[in-house]
Amino acid sequence: MKSPPSSQTIRLARDRLQKRFCALREIIRKELLEADKEPYAELAGRVHDLGDESVADLLADVNLAIIDHHIDEVRDIEATLLRISAGSYGHCTDCGELIDAARLDAYATATRCYPCQSRRERNYAQPSHPKL
To answer: If you compute the radius of gyration of the chain from its CA atoms, what whole number of angstroms results?
Structure first.
């Protein structure tokens, strides 16, 4: 039988998540500042070659996709910190059972136990993500 995460486990997870949250905010800030400095939009506006314009658009899209990925991770961390505050951390959002401690250790923002997550991945299409 699984036991709920100990207070020490929860404290360590919260500390780790808060550090990652702060690091991600700084990364996102730097990426947005760099995106403003990137000459892609200028390059695309200046050239009249469709190939160069496509490359400029692709580079800008890749940078935005990276930022989106970081923002999604920030949202996951915020939701997990709220679950910790509410006392529901470590409980599966689908079945309500406890999430295995090893899963939480490996993936602190997990919202589902392994069986429920596996079932969800089989039953629901995942959003398409461009592969580079």
So the answer is: 20
* CA gap 112, 91 in Å, rounded: 7
What pTM value is reported for the model?
0.76
Instruction: Give strand pairing partners of 91.
Output: 98
Token pair belonging to 15: 């500390």
Q: Where are the domains of the chain?
A: 7-90
Is 92 within 8 Å of 113 (Cβ atoms)? yes
Least confident of 4-8, 47-51, 115-119, 121-125: 47-51
Report the distance separating Cα 76 and Cα 125, nearest Å: 20
Alpha helices in 4-113 (DSSP H): 7-37, 40-46, 50-86, 101-106
Q: How many residues does the chain have?
A: 132
Q: Give how far Cα 1 sits from Cα of 4, 97, 101, Å.
A: 10, 10, 12
What element of type H or E holds 31?
helix 7-37
The first and second tokens of residue 10, run together, are 């929860």
